[in-house]
């Protein structure tokens, strides 16, 4: 009798593990679809990468350590270097000029972080600048750790902050 119970527990554990793996695969496939929609003309593995859950957690933790957060997002009152662009102006070219002027690195990698998602997307900052209108519809952060830069998309504004 005990062997049957143990075997049943093992089978249930295996079934739960398979269900968990299938769910994780489904979530990953959704992220792949979002990346393909956001960057339709980019070679996926060379220009854009989807990080593992562990690597994604580390990047998100780094973002929280680097910049001051409050209950509603980044606490912009505590950021010394910042610019806020309104949705009602031509912010795209101004944003690109601001980033390139203050951060002369054209090959800087950055991360698209959705605090509610398991995976972080890694790409070049220049790719984000060319697709900022598409990215800003997501409730996400753009984080470039090499140049200590962060972008937050809240309501109708795009806030950009950095450290010198």
Structure characterization notes:
The chain has six helices and nine strands. It is α+β, with helices and mostly antiparallel strands and about 160 residues long. The protein has one domain (about 45-160). The chain has a seven-stranded antiparallel sheet, sandwiched between helices. A two-stranded antiparallel ribbon has the order 2-3. The termini are far apart. The mean pLDDT is about 85.
Specify the helix fraction band. 40-55%
Tell me, briefly, the overall form. Answer: elongated
| Low-confidence runs of at least 5 consecutive residues | none
Strand content: 15-25%
Biggest sheet record: 7 strands, antiparallel
What is the CA-based Rg, rounded?
A: 20 Å
H/E element sequence: HHEHEEEHEEHHEEE
Q: What strand order characterises the main sheet?
A: 1-6-5-7-8-9-4
For this entry, give a set of tags:
elongated; 164 residues; alpha+beta; 9 strands
């Amino acid at each position: 009798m005990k062997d049957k119970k143990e075997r049943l527990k093992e089978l249930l554990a295996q079934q739960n593990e398979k269900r968990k793996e299938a769910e994780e695969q489904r979530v990953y496939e959704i992220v792949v679809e979002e990346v393909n929609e956001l960057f339709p003309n980019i070679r996926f593995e060379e220009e854009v990468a989807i990080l593992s859950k562990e690597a994604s957690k580390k990047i998100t933790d780094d973002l929280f350590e680097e910049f001051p957060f409050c209950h509603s997002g980044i606490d912009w009152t505590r950021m010394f270097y910042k610019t806020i662009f309104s949705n009602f102006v031509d912010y795209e070219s101004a944003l690109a000029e601001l980033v390139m002027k203050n951060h002369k690195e054209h090959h800087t990698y950055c991360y698209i972080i959705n605090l509610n998602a398991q995976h972080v997307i890694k790409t070049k900052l220049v790719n984000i600048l060319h697709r900022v209108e598409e990215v800003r519809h997501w409730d996400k952060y753009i984080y470039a750790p090499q140049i200590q830069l962060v972008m937050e998309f809240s309501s109708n504004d795009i806030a950009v902050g950095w450290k010198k």
